[in-house]
Structure formats: structure tokens, C-alpha cells
Amino acid sequence: MEESIALSREEIERREILRRYRALLRAVKPFMKRGDKKQLRLAFDLALDAHKDMRRKSGEPYIYHPLEVARITVEEIGLGTTSVVCALLHDVVEDTEVTLQQIEKEFGNVVARIIDGLTKISGLYNKSTNTSDQAENFRKMLLTLADDVRVILIKLADRLHNMRTLDSMPKEKQLKIASETSFLFAPLAHRLGLYAVKSELEDLALKYTEPEIYKEIA
Asked: Which one of 75, 94, 116, 203 is the catalytic residue?
């Protein structure tokens, strides 16, 4: 009985993963050139395999996160196929056994460079403990704009999805991530002209840093 329940859950999740992947393909279709669909499938398969044993705090399969980040990059930020590939792969070097060399071999130098930038940015703010550290990290993040603005844009998509799913995190983590969002990510979105993203980041941050004020406004 337990095995049939487990298989049933597995099948439900498999179908949901495919549904989200197909929705992503529909979203990116207007930007696709010859050969892009093959690259997207390769990125999806690699991310799916790399994250196969991982789950989010909510209990959902981890692969939902890169799929949603990829969808945000195209639907809400307006980026193209290369960025979608990078969004699908944005956590594999940091969180799994996949190496940057593997990424470069499979997807080329541009994708590898963006993934490297995303991995380094994660390292920057994950170590932040106080405001002066965060200010320095903000400066370093702005410097990466000169290298490839897509690194920051994908990171904003990543943060937006994390903020939308913050309810499943412990209270202390919610406060840290929400404060960081107000201080680092909302101003970045504003600087890049992503006003809808900036407003949503601020609103979601307020929900956790000032819940009473948030309830009044809502």
C-alpha cells in the first residue's frame, strides 16, 4: 500500500514537472532560434538529474525552483534562450556535483561564464552578517553588471521566486532573506528599470519584516 502511494506521488510530481517544462517552452518559443530547443532540453535534463534527490523546504521537488526562475526570466524580465538555459542550471554548480567545466563543455563559454557569475554572487550575500558587509556586496554585485547584466537579471528572478515561496522557511531565515531583499535586490531591480519586480520584492519583504503594516496595506 505504501509503495503504491509513493508511486502515485512520484507520478503526480513527474507530470507537474513536465507541465511546468512545457509552459516554459511555450513562453520562450517567440525567442527561439534553430537549435535552441535542443539546448533547452539538454539544460532541463541536466538540472532534473542533478537535483533529483533534492527537495525544497516546502517538500516540493527542487526542480520546480529552476523551472520557475527560468519562466520568470522570460515572461517577467524578457530575456531570451541563453538566459533560460542559465536559469535552469543556476544552482547546479553551487549545490550539486556538476562542475563548471562540464557546463562549458556542454553549453559553451557564455553559459559557463554566466553560471560562474551566479555562483559567485550567491557566495557574496550568503556570508553577509551585517549592513557594512551587505553594502560592500552591493557594490560588488553592481560591478558584475559590467561583465554581463544577465547574471544580475537571473539572480533577481531567483530572488523573486524565493520571496514568493518564503512561507515554508523558518522565521529567522525569512527575516534575513526579506531584509537582504529590501537592501540589495529591490534597489538593483529599480536601477535596472524593472519596476514591477522592484515593487513586488518590496511588498514581499514588508510581509516578513513588518507583518502588521503589510496586513493594514493589504
From this structure: 94
CA nearest neighbour of 58 among 169, 136, 139: 169
Catalytic annotation, pick one of 16, 36, 60, 95 = 95
- pLDDT tens-digit profile of 80-138? 999 999 999 999 999 999 999 999 999 999 999 999 989 888 776 665 556 666 667 66
pTM of this structure: 0.89
- Please give the span between the terminal C-alpha atoms of the chain, in angstroms, as a whole number: 45
Q: Retrieve residue 150's grid coordinates.
A: 544577465
Q: How many Cα atoms are found within 13 Å in the side-chain-facing hemisphere of 118?
A: 30
- C-alpha–C-alpha distance, residues 115 and 100, integer Å: 8
The DSSP bridge partners found for residue 155 are none
Question: Which 8-state DSSP code applies to residue 76?
Answer: T
Q: Residue 13 corresponds to which amino acid?
A: E
CB atoms within 10 A of CB 167: 10
Written as nine digits, the cell of 172 is 529567522
The answer to whether residue 167 is catalytic is no
Would you call 94 a catalytic residue per the annotation?
yes
